[in-house]
Amino acid sequence: MIKLILHFIFFYLLLNFNTTFSKEIVVSPKSFIKSISQAIQISRSGDTINIKSGYYTEGNIIINKPLIIIGTRNPVIDGLGTGEIFTITSSDVEISGLTINNSGVSYLYENAGIKLKEVTNCRILNNTFINNFFAIYLAKSSNSIISGNYIEGMRKKETNSGNGIHLWDCRDIIISNNIILNHRDGIYFEFVRNGRIFDNRSYNNLRYGLHFMFSDSCKYWENIFESNSAGVAVMYTKNVLMKKNVFRNNWGTSSYGLLLKDISNSEIKENQFIGNSVGILLEGCSRIIINKNDLTENGWAIKLMANSMENSFSLNNFINNSFNLSTNSMQNFNKFEGNYWSNYNGYDLDKNGVGDVPFRPVTMFSVIVEKQHLALILLNSHFVKLLDIAEGVVPSITPNALIDPKPSMKAINWSK
Fold first, then answer.
1. What is the 3 state secondary structure string of the chain?
2. Containing domain of residue 285, as a range?
3. What is the CATH number of the domain that holds 59?
4. Exposed, middle or buried by CB within 10 Å (0-12, 13-18, 19+), for 61?
5. Per-residue pLDDT of the chain in tens (416 residues, 90 and over written 9)
6. Cα 61 to chain center, whole Å?
7. Does 355 reside within a domain?
8. Cβ pair 299, 278 in contact under 8 A
9. Could you tell me if residue 401 is inside a domain?
10. Residues 278 and 256: beta-carbon distance below 8 Å
11. How far apart are alpha carbons 300 and 316 in whole angstroms?
């Protein structure tokens, strides 16, 4: 009788231990558990599922409880081009160390390598995504981290390519240290609040390296956006900080380093705009501080539309651009002061580092080109230089009020 009681106590304690403490479930082509879905089905909340090296043709995997899923020696999960691969519907899930390939292309559904739906406190870390429609998709989710992932799309057409990292109606998301290429948009935000994007490289995408709309109070720093078809677009947003990013070689007839449309109360500072068709385009923007940026060897450094007002441009370096500034208005409701212009020919008699003659950044030829694009073939002719000299002496068709009254005589080292 005593033995029976002791056995009962032992089994009770064992059962209690198993339900209190998490365990590891191993998935392997050589083990009893060969399927990720099977491992999830038998797991309890808080368990770790360790997927060993191998090739798993598995998709439509639903994670509906808090789990840690880790890959050992780079297991490959192949969706075979059908549907979604992982769908996370539980908070407190972590996925790391997997290679996730071939979610299905769809014109009705946003199939993804990993989709997070209405969850919080999830982490997608150090995975590889190859040839997925969308790679990582977050909807109505919050307080999650997407970091250290390599994401490469199919690069076919915009219609059958999704975005690398896509957020819709999310809050407090960190996106860091990812490499994203060959998708439609590298990173896409819509109705996002308090997003943090840093240390990412988004390049060679079919449309934008970064594209976000209606996403207030977000910060972007130390990212590289390079060789994307249309550069970066920020639209219908306020309270944005973009700092220490590189916008490079975004080149084409409708391409920009940075397109700002209907943006207000934001700051663009300490960025590098190098070799873009247009460095920065502002349309319908107000109260933006554009400060301490390098704009180097762009077609147009700045295109400033007439409906943009109360913006401030100061301590920027404009170096070897074909056109420093273009505008479609004879009026000026913006402020330029203390910038360096590499084609400034003024003098500094009192040697205080500030030019004694104001600089007019809009040339006569830039106005002509805005009205007749074919005039670009005359860009490097002596005739154009004579026109600009004459216009500088007696302004007639360039905005008389658009000047930098205190141009810097030397390039500004704002990186100190």
1. CHHHHHHHHHHHHHHHHHHHCCCEEEECCCCCCCCHHHHHHHCCCCCEEEECCCEEECCCEEECCCCEEEECCCCEEECCCCCCCEEECCCCCEEECCEEECCCCCCCCCCEEEEEECCECCEEECCEEECCCEEEEEECCEEEEEECCEEECCCCCHHHCCCCEEEECCEEEEEECCEEECCCCCEEEECCECCEEECCEEECCCCEEEEEECCCCCEEECCEEECCCCEEEEEEEECCEEECCEEECCCCCCCCCEEEEEEEEEEEECCEEECCCEEEEEECCEEEEEECCEEECCCEEEEECCCCECCEEECCEEECCCEEEEECCCCCCCEEECCEECCCCCCCCCCCCECCCCECCCCHHHHHHHHCHHHHHHCCCHHHHHHHHHHHHCCCCCCCCCCECCCECCCCCCCC
2. 23-325
3. 2.160.20.10
4. buried
5. 555 444 444 444 434 444 446 799 999 988 889 999 999 999 999 999 999 999 999 999 999 999 999 999 999 999 999 999 999 999 999 999 999 999 999 888 899 999 999 999 999 999 999 999 999 999 999 999 999 999 999 877 777 789 999 999 999 999 999 999 999 999 999 999 999 999 999 999 999 999 999 999 999 999 999 999 999 999 999 999 999 999 999 988 788 999 999 999 999 999 999 999 999 999 999 999 999 999 999 999 999 998 999 999 999 999 999 889 988 877 788 999 999 999 888 888 888 989 999 988 886 555 555 554 544 544 555 445 555 555 555 454 556 778 899 999 999 887 76
6. 28
7. no
8. yes
9. no
10. yes
11. 14
Rounded CA-CA distance 325/318 in Å is: 10
Residue 60 lies in a domain: yes
Q: Which residue type is seen at 147?
A: S
pTM for the complete prediction?
0.87
- CA distance to 12, 67, 71, 179, per residue, from 96 (Å): 35, 11, 6, 15
Number of domains the chain is built from:
1
Q: Give the Cα separation of 239 and 168 in Å (integer).
A: 18
Which among 173, 165, 175, 176 is positioned nearest to 192, based on CA atoms?
173
Residue 90 lies in a domain: yes
Give the pair of three-digit tokens for residue 153: 């799309």
